[in-house]
């Protein structure tokens, strides 16, 4: 018989697992890893509302994508266009970024799998006498290691030609040049830290769902057990 067990600690772990997976996925897909040096507006780049020149813009560069401003000659204005600069894996600008993409992709796939499984831990807490919480916590720790490897290798690719075109000639491995780090990089770091927090917190979720209070509720014949 399936017993639905909901505790504060197990629910918090589930929510954090889902948030971490989505945060890492969004960061990976974003082009806002590097913010390039400001590009001055051209003489025909006019703001239609004010009649004056638009502010200089900052192109952004991700692991496999980029955002830049394109001209519309017919309307004498510019729009920001975002999309992948690499049509396939081999066209990613740096070998280090290719390795980063692999490590991050593997880590994110593990996190997404754990997030999916975590939703069902309310009804199924063990498989083959193994705690799902402990198994998921172990997988989250492994995913965190992949994420760390990817984030360590990413700055090594700042010396590639693509990064130099955005960040200037002084850009090199682990040196930003004229660029600055975008929100996606910081989100990836924050998600990695939360991944390890989830891995540790999974043990607390397991303890909460297997406590004596829960066992008492099961012995009383309750199928829905909610505990603080």
TrEMBL record:
It is a multi-pass membrane protein. The keyword Transmembrane applies. Keywords: Fertilization, Membrane, Transmembrane, Transmembrane helix. The keyword Transmembrane applies. It is found in: Membrane. GO terms for biological process: single fertilization. GO terms for cellular component: membrane. The chain crosses the membrane at residues 12-35, 96-120, 132-154, 183-203. PANTHER family: LHFPL TETRASPAN SUBFAMILY MEMBER 2 PROTEIN (PTHR12489:SF19), LIPOMA HMGIC FUSION PARTNER-LIKE PROTEIN (PTHR12489). Belongs to the LHFP family. This is LHPL2 protein. It comes from Bucorvus abyssinicus (Northern ground-hornbill). The gene is Lhfpl2.
């Amino acid at each position: 018989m399936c017993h639905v067990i909901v505790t504060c600690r197990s629910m918090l772990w589930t929510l954090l697992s889902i948030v971490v997976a989505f945060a890492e996925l969004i960061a990976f897909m974003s082009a806002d890893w590097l913010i390039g040096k400001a590009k001055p507006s051209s003489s025909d780049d006019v703001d239609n509302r004010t009649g004056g020149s638009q502010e200089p813009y900052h192109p952004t560069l991700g692991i496999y994508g980029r955002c830049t401003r394109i001209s519309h000659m017919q309307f004498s204005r510019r729009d920001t266009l975002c999309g992948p600069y690499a049509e396939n894996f081999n066209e990613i600008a740096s070998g280090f970024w290719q390795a980063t993409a692999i490590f991050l992709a593997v880590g994110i796939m593990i996190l997404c799998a754990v997030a999916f499984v975590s939703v069902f831990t309310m009804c199924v807490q063990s498989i083959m006498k193994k705690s799902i919480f402990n198994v998921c916590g172990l997988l989250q720790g492994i995913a965190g290691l992949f994420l760390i490897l990817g984030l360590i290798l990413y700055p090594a690719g700042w010396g590639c030609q693509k990064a130099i075109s955005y960040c200037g000639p002084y850009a090199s491995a682990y040196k930003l040049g004229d660029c600055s780090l975008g929100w996606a990089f910081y989100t990836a770091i924050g998600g990695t830290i939360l991944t390890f927090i989830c891995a540790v917190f999974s043990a607390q979720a397991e303890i909460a769902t297997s406590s004596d209070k829960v066992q008492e509720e099961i012995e009383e014949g309750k199928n829905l057990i909610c505990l603080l």
